[in-house]
Design a protein that fits this description.
The chain is an alpha/beta fold and about 160 residues long. The protein has five helices and four strands. Helix content is about 35%, strand content about 15%. It is globular, with a radius of gyration of 14 Å. It comes from Polynucleobacter antarcticus. This is Protein-tyrosine-phosphatase.
Length: about 160
């Protein structure tokens, strides 16, 4: 079975994009390999996002905030799909992506900005995880070899 590389982008690559990477990489279909990066990566992955990744069974030893330029280098894995998950990253000038991957924006509020107890913060991360999971489930159920940017964007409105 062919697998498809999917890159989730968010400005700081510390929360939403990391959750997307973990969800894609651990998806039951086995069709997706998730990656994540940001335009101005932070110094570390948000602990709530790392905890979710671990709970999903994702190898957290490799989680780190990465600059999206890493994925435009000649030796980088070629992406089939690129998804921005925050409005800031969607509005930025992205690097050239080799292979002309299908792109879309699936915006989610930043769970790391939620104030309150740890329980309230974790709930915000779980809400983002559930939204991303719905979209990734829809994506994995589609004929991926024929998916284009228009079809990929439609997933956002269906989920």
């Amino acid at each position: 079975m062919k697998t498809y590389n999917i890159l989730f982008l968010c400005t700081h690559n510390s929360a939403r994009s990391v959750i997307g990477e973990a969800l894609a990489s651990t998806h039951a279909s086995g069709k997706l390999i998730g990656f994540s990066a940001g335009s101005t990566p932070g110094t570390s992955v948000n602990p709530f996002a790392a905890e979710i990744a671990k709970e999903l069974g994702h190898d957290t030893s490799k989680l780190r905030s990465k600059n999206w330029d890493e994925f435009s280098l000649p030796d980088a894995p070629q992406m089939d799909f690129i998804i921005t998950v925050c409005d800031d990253a969607a509005g930025e000038q992205c690097p050239f992506w080799p292979g002309k991957p299908a792109t879309a924006h699936w915006g989610f509020p930043d769970p790391s900005k939620v104030q309150g107890s740890d329980l309230e913060k974790k709930a915000a991360f779980i809400q983002v995880m559930n939204g991303l999971k719905r979209r990734i489930d829809l994506l994995a159920s589609m004929p991926l070899e024929r998916l284009d940017s228009i079809s990929l964007k439609e997933i956002h409105s269906k989920a």
